[in-house]
Amino acid sequence: MGAFVISRRFNDEYKFVFTSRKGKVIFTSLSYELKFECEEDIERFKMNVNEAVFLKFKGSGGKFFFKLMLGEVHFATSRKYTTELLLQKGIKEIVLYASRAEILDFSSSESIFEDELVEEEFGR
């Protein structure tokens, strides 16, 4: 169905990506200083996905991408696609599934696998 995944950038700001049903990133948001702003924008987008505008571009390398606009505001930028058809499929996935996609929060600085790795590595 797709999911919004919240994480942190290297500069400690928050971002989210929207992933497809197969787990591939479709678009990445802009940066947010506070996590609640990120969460609020996801909810706002989910409620207003039908009002989203997708501005399509072809980059200098020949790949396709879109900028997602919500109102007059640049909301997110897509990944690069090799064909315009794949770009259109990415947009379709957003339109069909974003309004009911779950939100996953991986913004914690702690690794969820840290304890398991220590046990494996040191036999504890």
TrEMBL record:
InterPro entries xref list: YegP-like_sf (IPR036913)
Superkingdom, natural source: Bacteria
Name of this chain's protein: DUF1508 domain-containing protein
Organism: Flavobacterium cheongpyeongense
